[in-house]
Amino acid sequence: MTVELQMLLGLFFIISVLAVVFGPIAVSNGIAKMLEKIAFTCGWCLVILMCVTCFDVFSRKLGLPISLTRFQELEWWLHTTIFSSWMGYNYTINAHPRVDSFTENASFQSRAWLELIGLLLFALPYIAITCYFGIDFVYQSWRVDEGSESAIGMPHRWIIKGIYIAGIWLVLLAIISVLLKVVAYLFGGVPNERANLQIGKSELEV
Predict the structure, then answer these.
(1) Which range is least confidently modeled, 5-9, 21-25, 101-105, 148-152?
(2) Has residue 14 been placed in a domain?
(3) Count of domains for the chain
(4) In a 10 Å sphere around its CB, with 0-12 CB exposed, 13-18 middle and 19+ buried, how is residue 114 labelled?
(5) Would you say the C-alpha torsion 30, 31, 36, 42 has a positive or negative sign?
(6) How far apart are CA 206 and CA 201, in angstroms?
(7) Which one, of 140, 182, 176, lies nearest residue 161 by Cα?
(8) Residue 173 lies in a domain
(9) Average pLDDT of the segment spanning 126-143
(10) E strands of the chain, at which residues?
(11) What angle do CA 69, 78, 5 make, to 5 degrees?
(12) Range of the domain at 119
């Protein structure tokens, strides 16, 4: 059994045990809270990104005799970090784009069944496979100490690849979090007032 498969099975086993001991809603809320803290903490990268971008722009406008390649690459490194850290949390609050043309007038229970089918048939298998191969994706980059195509660019590209794959694993946790709520609502008799299942059309306050 490969290390990647052991990690996936271990994660599913631990969460299953916790769900039995503490209840699926408590575990789901715990995962969502952890994802929220990660997303909000990494949100500070926006401040760093703003500073780096401003320095890059002003340096080019002023014609400063310095190489800006690393700054320009650092910008997309920061973009990737922000994107990766928010992917999972966004799903738990129903902030991902949805096509609700066919479910707009459906009952909440029907939307919950559709969510369950989508999670089991599409989202969970796809993300699990991506997590599985993502570890080797990072390892191969680390093994050869992959760097930028530019000689003066950012070194150690495995770091940002690792951050991206970590973000994919956070999406896996988010899917499990929502799946626990859907199962508790459909099969455990848990009312949505307690499950707080956010699916279907939503309007987020900005």
Answers:
(1) 101-105
(2) yes
(3) 1
(4) middle
(5) positive
(6) 16
(7) 140
(8) yes
(9) 96
(10) none
(11) 115
(12) 3-40+80-195
Diameter over CA atoms, the chain: 67
pLDDT > 60? residue 206 = no
Locate tokens 């994706």: which residue?
137
Whether residue 75 contacts residue 104, with contact meaning beta carbons closer than 8 Å, is answered with no
In a domain, 168, yes or no: yes
Distance from C-alpha of 28 to C-alpha of 18, rounded to nearest angstrom? 10
CA distance 129 to 108: 30
- Would residue 49 count as lying in a domain? no
- The per-residue pLDDT for 198 is 84
pLDDT > 90 fraction of the chain, expressed in percent and rounded:
73
What are 37's two structure tokens? Answer: 């803290």
**Phi, psi dihedral angles at 136 (to 5 degrees):** -70, -30
Helix, strand, coil percentages for the chain (3-state, nearest 5): 75, 0, 25
Note the Cα 116 to chain centre separation in Å: 19
- Mean pLDDT confidence for 95-112: 80
Q: What average pLDDT does range 154-183 have in this prediction?
A: 97
Q: CA Rg, the chain, in Å?
A: 20
Q: Give the Cα separation of 176 and 84 in Å (integer).
A: 17
